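Case study B.
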Amino acid sequence: MAVSVANSRLIFEALKACDVKIFSALPETWLVHLIRMADEDPDTVLVRLAKEEEGIGISAGAHLAGVNSALLMQNHGFLASINAIVSLALLYKIPLLMLISYRGHMGEKDAWQTQGGMATEPILRALNIPIWHLTSATDVERRIRDAQTLALASLHPVAVLLSRELMWEE
Amino acid sequence: MLRQDALEEIYPEIQELIVVTIMGAVAVELYTIGHRHNFFYLEHAMGLASSMGLGIALAMPGHKVVVIDGDGSLLMNLGTLSTMARYQPENLLHIVFDNESLLSVGGFPTVTALGTDLAGIARASGVPQVREANTPGSLRDEVREALASNTLTTIISKVEAVGPKTFHMDLPLLENRFQFKRALEGIKKGKGE
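Model:
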């Protein structure tokens, strides 16, 4: 049982194909390979955060400076960022490409993840943030590209939920 | 020192640069001294002006970025100091006006009124250059020095808890957002404001 390196690579390459240059992240088990790839790639900048809401500010700054960025966060990091999403990204029409590891959903054994898992989608919907689920390797490139296209066209955050099926090999 | 006097003193040093301020009195005062399209006033999301500044500094490494922060905002996002210190962008200057008060919402004292030392926190967070400047002239000198040094700098300036009579700005926040993005495009192309 391990985090999928192959699918992490697919996601990372799809983001690079979208010309994403800045990644902000906080470590989370499912994201370890993605974070390492963003760190090692000479064409991308990884910003390791103290708290996820900083990433909303960094992405807002990057967008206003004309550079594409993505946020790598656990769903609890998304929950910790809600005010920043509302009072910066939504208020100022900032596109955010949020890649959210969808912990606490089907198959979750860690009790402490489960409440966040159940709250994630209802809260995204309450914020009117479009959701893409990534569940299969064949969807990754197209869905990430389409998510970014919508974010940039609508000047609005979008959420790409990274599922257990994609991220965790059994 | 009055923040208004301090801003007037440093205005010539920062007017050509990319500036991000927090909301409230400091935004109104800078706007009133002379709004420019390369100034962005973050009218909400307290604490994130410095994170925005970091994002811009990383996205535009060849251009100076000045963040004008406050004690209340910085206390809401102390982790920003450690994140800035981790990357140490040499083009970022972080000025904090510490009026020991949440002035815009009724003047309740912040904990800096009781001795919490923001300069000490910045130093201990690893910000490579931390200065304190409590007169307009010394602030101007520190700003000049910091900009010339190409080193991430945090300057803490104690100011009186006095603000403008009105907080009205004739600048809808989305207008500011779009004109600021255009200004940054122009700066990237070398056209200035």
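The domain at 2-169 of chain A is CATH 3.40.50.970 (Rossmann fold). The remaining cases will be described in the next quarterly update.
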